[in-house]
Design goal:
The complex is a heterodimer.
Chain A: E1 4-7, E2 10-13, E3 19-25, E4 31-38, E5 42-51, E6 54-57, E7 64-66, E8 76-78, E9 87-94, E10 104-105, E11 109-113
Parallel strand pairs in A: 2-11
Antiparallel strand pairs in A: 1-3, 3-8, 4-5, 4-9, 5-6, 7-8, 9-10, 9-11
Chain B: E1 4-7, E2 10-14, E3 19-25, E4 29-37, E5 43-50, E6 55-58, E7 61-66, E8 71-76, E9 85-93, E10 101-102, E11 106-111
Parallel strand pairs in B: 2-11
Antiparallel strand pairs in B: 1-3, 3-8, 4-5, 4-9, 6-7, 7-8, 9-10, 9-11
Classes of the chains: A mainly beta, B mainly beta.
């Protein structure tokens, strides 16, 4: 049972480069989300989706784009990477959203922007 | 802005002792959840307590919720070295159906 799978686990970018962090879940969860984790800051919500074709912004959406073409996949795109986007990124999914259930997290993608 | 704030930021205890971590939050909530994160890993859900509940147990975990004080505590009894991890509280504000807001966490070290 794979759960939530994130790729890549590690990535180094130069300022201005673009890339996509992949997230896939095999639990048929409607809700998916992306968080970033910085030292001493906890996790901050970037974007989330309540179902295929529906996305919305979280607390820190600037510099990131998302799409949700299928229930399983929720990629996070950085169009022009900046050093401030150096962080650990976590994808999470839930069956019913945080109102009633738990979030299942991936193992994280560690991004360094030089 | 962060909804929940954990206290203390770091806690070091001996194996067998109890560990208590506190969480304070700012606005009315629908529920409060506790998560655990081992170093370099993703977060794992521990327990969820709803706003109309006051106490909940799961194995060696005991969670309390005081909505009048906007605070929660997580007690781990008879701690083990394997309990060493960061612990985060997370809240769902009332009126927000989907967004879970995390605190900055408590780093627990259990010494063998």
């Amino acid at each position: 049972n794979a759960g939530v799978t994130q790729t890549p686990k590690f990535q180094v970018l130069k300022t201005g480069q673009s890339m996509t962090l992949q997230c896939a879940q095999d639990m048929n969860h409607e809700y998916m989300s992306w968080y970033r984790q910085d030292p001493g800051m906890g996790l901050r919500l970037i974007h989330y989706s309540v179902g295929a074709g529906i996305t919305d912004q979280g607390e820190v959406p600037n510099g990131y784009n998302v799409s949700r073409s299928t229930t399983e996949d929720f990629p996070l795109r950085l169009l022009s990477a900046a050093p401030s986007q150096t962080s650990v990124y976590f994808c999470a999914s839930s069956n019913e959203g945080a109102r009633t259930g738990e979030l299942f997290f991936g193992e994280g993608s560690r991004l360094t922007v030089l | 802005s962060q909804q929940g704030e954990e206290d203390p930021q770091a806690l070091s205890i001996q194996e067998g002792e109890n560990a208590t971590m506190n969480c304070s939050y700012k606005t009315s909530i629908n529920n409060l959840q506790w998560y655990r994160q081992n170093s370099g890993r993703g977060l794992v859900h521990l327990i969820l307590i709803r706003s109309n509940e006051r106490e909940k147990h799961s194995g060696r975990l005991r969670v309390t919720l005081d909505t009048s004080k906007k605070s929660s505590s997580l007690l781990i009894t008879a701690s083990r070295a394997a309990d060493t991890a960061s612990y985060f509280c997370a809240t769902v504000p009332s009126g927000s159906a989907r967004q879970l807001t995390f605190g900055s966490g408590t780093q627990l070290t259990v010494l063998p």
